[in-house]
Amino acid sequence: MEGVSSKLMVVAAAVLVIIMFVGSATQAYGSYAMCSYGPCKLQQLECPHECPELYPSNPKSKACYLDCYSPVCKPSCKNRKPNCNSPGAACLDPRFIGGDGIVFYFHGKTNENFALVSDPTFQINARFTGHRPVGRPRDFTWIQALGFVLGSTPTTFSLEATKSATWSDDIDHLKFTYNGAELAVPAGHLSTWQSPDDAITVQRTSDRNSVVVTIPEVGEVTVNVVPVTAEDDRVHGYKVPADDCFAHLEVQFKFFRGMSEKVEGVLGKTYRPDFRNPAAKPGVAMPVVGGEDVYRTSSLLAADCGACLFDPAAAGSGGDLVMVGENEVIDCSGRFGSGNGIVCRK
C-alpha cells in the first residue's frame, strides 16, 4: 500500500505541475478583444498566443486584430504598419489599391493637393511632392502630406513628411498640425496624442516616422515615412537631385463605417457599392486614372474640388451613412485611443 500511495503522490504532484504550467500560460496569454458592434458585438474573444496584445510594446511585434464585421469572429495577428499590397493602400509613386482590391496609379502633380476621400461628413486630401526630369512629359510624384477635415466646426488635422536632402532613421521626419497650430507628438513607441474633443487620436508605432491616426466612426490610417532610395532611383530612373531624398508617406486606410454610397475622391470612389474601375482593363500592366481637374483642392485642408462632397452641416447631423468598413475595437484600459475598442485581461 505504501508503494501505491507513493506512486499516487508522484502522479498527483505531476498533475499539479501540469495544471500550474497550463494556468500560468493561460494567464500570460489571457488577452481578449471585443467589438462594439457588428456580428462579433460584445463577445470576448481570446487573442492568439503569438500576438496577445492590441498595442505590443515591441514595435516589430504583430498586434491582436479583430475584424468586427467578419461572421467568423476570430482575432488574428497583424502588423501595425501599412501593407502596401492590401486594399486602401497608397505607396510608391503613388500606387493605390482601391476598396475593390484593384491596383491603379494616380500621378497628380508636384506641390498640388488632391482629394483622396470626400464625403458629406469628412474629407481626406493629399499633397504630392516630386519633380520632372528634363525631357519627361509628366512629374514623378509621391504623397508628401495628408490633410483631414471633419465635423461641423470643422476640425482640421494634417501630417507631413518633412523635406530632407539625406535620410536618417535617427531623425523624425513627421510634422503634425491640429486646427492650424503645429502639434508635437513626443517621439517614442506608443507615444499617443488625442484631440480635446476625442475626434482624432495619433499613436506612434515606432520611435520615429510611423504612426496610426484613428478617427472614431470613420477609420484609421497607418503611416510610414520613407525616402526614395538610391536603388529606387536606379531601377526607375527618377533622377533624384542631390538636395532632396523626397521623403514621402506610405499609407493604408481602413474605414470602419460612416461613408455615403456616393463617396468621392481618388481612393474614396473605389469604396462605392457600384464602382467599376475604368482603368482596370485586360492587358494594362499599370492602369492610370485621371481626375486631376475634378479632385484638385486649393490647399491641403480645403474641400473645394469640383467633385468634393464635404458639408459641415451634414457632418453635424451624421449625413446619410452606410457601413463600409472593417473593425472598431474598444480599449477598456483607457490608455490608448478614443475608447472605441478594447483589449481586456482575465
From TrEMBL:
Residues 1-28 form the signal peptide. Keywords: Signal. Pfam families: Root_cap. InterPro entries: Root_cap. It comes from the Eukaryota. This is Root cap. It comes from Linum trigynum.
